[in-house]
C-alpha cells in the first residue's frame, strides 16, 4: 500500500489515473441521449422512447404511492434523488476505483 503525500499537485493527477472521466461530460451524455431518444415522439414508442417513458412512469408512480395525491411538486426532487442514488451505486460497482491505490490515506 502506498502512502501518498498530501498536496494539491498530487491530488490533481488522481482524477485521470483510472482512465474514467466522471463529471459534467457524463451528465451531458445522459441528457443528450434523452434528447435523441425522445426527439420524435410516436404513438407506438421506439426503443429509446420506451425506455425513458418507463423510467419516468416508474418515478411518477413511486412518488404517487409514497406521497399520495399531492405528489406533483415532489416528482422532480424524488426523480433527481432516485437517479443520483441509482447512478452512484452502479458507478461504484462497475468502475475500477480500486486502481487508485492509496487515495484514501490522504487525510491530513
How would you characterize the overall build of this protein?
- This protein is an all-alpha fold and 108 residues long.
- It has one domain (8-15, 22-105).
- The model has no long low-confidence stretch (mean pLDDT 73).
- Helix 2 crosses helix 3.
- It is 56% helix and 0% strand.
- The chain has four helices and no strands.
- This is ATP synthase subunit a, chloroplastic.
- Keywords: Membrane, Transmembrane, Transmembrane helix.
N-end to C-end Cα span:
17 Å
Overall tally of structural domains: 1
Per DSSP E runs of 2 or more residues, the count of β-strands stands at 0
How can the largest sheet be summarized? none
If you average the pLDDT, what whole number results? 73
Uncertain stretches: none
| Approximate helicity band | 55-70%
Radius of gyration, rounded? 19 Å
Which structural class do you get from the secondary structure elements? mainly alpha
The percentage of residues in β strands lies in: under 5%
**Secondary structure tally, helices:** 4
- Overall body shape: globular
Question: SSE string, helix = H, strand = E?
Answer: HHHH
Layout: helices, strands, pairs:
Elements: H1 8-13, H2 24-37, H3 47-67, H4 75-94
Helix pairs in contact: 2-3, 3-4
GO molecular function: proton transmembrane transporter activity
GO cellular component, one term: proton-transporting ATP synthase complex
Transmembrane segments: 74-95
